[in-house]
Amino acid sequence: MRKLTALFIASTLALGTVSVAFAADSVAEPRTDRAPMKMMHHDGPGKRGPFAGLNLTEQQRQQVRDIMKEAHQKRGSEENTERQALHNQIASDSFDEAKAKVHIDAISKAQAEHMLERAKAENKIYNLLTPEQQKQYNENYQKREQKMMEHKNKMQEQNLLRDN
Question: Which spans of this chain does the record mark as coiled coil (predicted)?
Answer without folding.
Answer: 109-158
